[in-house]
Amino acid sequence: MSNVTKLSDKFNLFQVPWHPKIVGELNDSYVKLAKLKGEFVWHHHANEDELFLVIKGTLVIKLRDQELTIHEGEFVIIPKGIEHLPVAQEEVQVLLLESKTTLNTGNVQNERTVEAEWI
Amino acid sequence: MSNVTKLSDKFNLFQVPWHPKIVGELNDSYVKLAKLKGEFVWHHHANEDELFLVIKGTLVIKLRDQELTIHEGEFVIIPKGIEHLPVAQEEVQVLLLESKTTLNTGNVQNERTVEAEWI
Asked: Mapped to the 3 state alphabet, what secondary structure does chain B carry?
């Protein structure tokens, strides 16, 4: 049994920013949705690349040597080991593709660290 | 160095349906874009799950026991081993997420089999 997942329906199920939710799994990856608002924390993922596809809004991802601006309908892949700081001036809706082992704050564990749950 | 990839720019680079193009890689996966038009062939992927996210148009995926209709902003994940037949009455633009080992026609090798190339 396969199901069709409508992104906008899923985004309506949660509001809190920086708490990614799992909406699908394939192979060794999770598909997650997140709302982002404000500034996150500098971190990197030692062993996992991470994809950000912007569904709504404009996301800035600061790297140590450049700044990426990602609009609706655009994506970036942050390679493993690369420090990054997501910043959302206004609320941004993103689809994330990550290894099942990826923690939202990567190498950093602090009050922003959350375990993703299925919705 | 990370780059922002704009889906619509990439879709403008090719026209031929059923020839997925690689636009990104992360971990053991490729992000691919494809235009679909008409009916493909029944096939399955023995070892790999496959994600279809519809960017434009309406995609039907027939399974042996159900039929999925996927609109813009919706996705499905076809688990490994499940036979499926994508059908696009009008042109559909999809983002695919697949293992690097995935062949477009899965277990079937015929004139529809193509090697995905980077764009």
From this structure: CCCCEEHHHHHCCCCCCCCCEEEEEECCEEEEEEEEEEECCCECCCCCCEEEEEEECCEEEEECCCEEEECCCEEEEECCCCCEEEEEEEEEEEEEEEECCCCCCCCCCCCCCCCCEEC
